[in-house]
Structure to design on (108 residues):
């Protein structure tokens, strides 16, 4: 599996998102795709891809949402954090740090 569940357990919704992101990873060799369930209503995703270099944040989102848009709307609504960065941006991105060291969720 190219897509990695970064922490915690999987469930059917998380697996569905992971399967969808596999298609992104298949089309972007070298991309690192990770996700996890932050709480019962929130899924966090991080994609580290050199192909994002020189692209605006909105262009990066368009590239990824091309794949995520195939998910049911209810499942799309569970995506609360979508971090799209280049390898060079990983250490300087506060969102990436939150992905690695998540603050406690007030919701279980």
């Amino acid at each position: 599996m190219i897509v990695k569940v970064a922490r915690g357990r999987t469930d059917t919704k998380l697996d569905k998102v992971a399967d969808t992101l596999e298609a992104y990873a298949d089309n972007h060799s070298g991309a690192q795709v990770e996700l996890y369930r932050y709480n019962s209503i929130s899924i966090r995703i991080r994609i580290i891809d050199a192909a994002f270099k020189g692209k605006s944040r909105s262009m990066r989102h368009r590239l990824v949402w091309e794949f995520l848009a195939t998910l049911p709307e209810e499942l799309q609504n569970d995506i609360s954090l979508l971090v799209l960065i280049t390898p060079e941006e990983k250490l300087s991105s506060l969102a990436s740090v939150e992905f690695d060291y998540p603050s406690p969720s007030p919701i279980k």
Remarks:
- The beta strands are 3-5, 32-39, 42-48, 79-85.
- The radius of gyration is 13 Å.
- Residues 13 and 74 are 10 Å apart (CA to CA).
